Structures are given as structure tokens and as C-alpha cells.
Amino acid sequence: MKLVYVFDAYCGWSHGFSGTLSEVASRHPELPVEVVSGGLFTGSRRVPIREFGYVQGANAKIAELTGAEFGEAYERLIADGSFVMDSEVAARGVAALRQVAPGRAAELAIALQHAFYVDGLSLSETATYRKVAEEAGLDADAVVAAFAGAEAPDAAADDFRRSAELGVTGFPTLLAVDGHRVTPLAHGHATADEVDRRLASR
After folding, report:
1. Is pTM, for the whole model, over 0.90?
2. Helix or strand (DSSP H, E) at 130
């Protein structure tokens, strides 16, 4: 059995779930965690952040409910409303980090969201992946090469397809996958204790 975490790097609720994901992973070192990018802001949803009028209010609710931090650098990044969240490019970055350190996918997904929501770094910039890789002690050149490589768009598309095949309709979603058996453990928000109870009763 393994855990499958379907998230979007540009999803505030996924950022809010970081603490729970980290706790669940530390409680269950025997369970590998597969990280899949869901593709929240693609196609016609790839527009300036001002088009999503609910962002600030949603972030306040996420912070209140989960304790997640939204940093001043992030607030500055989105202040004029022109920033475009591109989930396809972010998914390429997730895939690049995962390729270089597959066993640390959950930890790196959390670090990537911290880079955006706390440090205010764009997930469309190569420098962001270099910084995340260096701070994680990874081969930053290998991560950057994977992010910019010809296969990167395919890796992102594969993730979006996997998310759809798993029946995921919102982010974050945490699943327990055992062969063909898929058990939902969390959707949107849950504590580590709640996840544990669902895991035990599956």
C-alpha cells in the first residue's frame, strides 16, 4: 500500500495541508508517498490572479483553519494582481524534483509551496527550482535540466492524467492505494489524527 497525494503547487488549500501531510508521512515511514500534480490553473484558468477575486479571503480562512503561513513576499508578489499562476509549469517543476529525489517527493512538494506562499517566488522561474533543490541538498543542475528538458511537458501531462484517472475533483486529496483499491483519506482539509482514523478503518 502507498499514499497518493494529489495537489496543485498553486493551491492555497494544498499549502494549508502541508502540516498534515508532513505529520502523516512522519507517522507512517513504512508507506511511500506518491505526489501527483492536479493542474488547477491550466488552459482558460491561466489568467492574472486579479481574475480570482476570492484569493485573499480564501487565504485568510486557510491560515485560520490550518495555521499555514502566507508571507509578506508572497503578498507583494500578488499585490498588483498581474501575477499568473501556471499549474502546467509548476507541475513540470514538481516532476523535476521528484525525478531527482523520488523518495522525498512529499517533502519537496511542501518546500515548493513554501517557496511560493512564504518566499513569494514564482513557480515558473528556473531560479526557484534551483533554490529549492539547493536548500534540500539535491543536485540543482539536474533539477534545472529536468525542469527545462524536452520531456517536462509530458511529465506534467502524465500527472494531470493520473489525477483524473484517480477520480480526483479537488485539491488537495490524499488517498490510500492498495492495488486497485483506492480509499480517500482527506479532501481539502483534515488533521493527521483524522487521516489516521480513516487509514485504520479502511
Report:
1. yes
2. helix 126-135
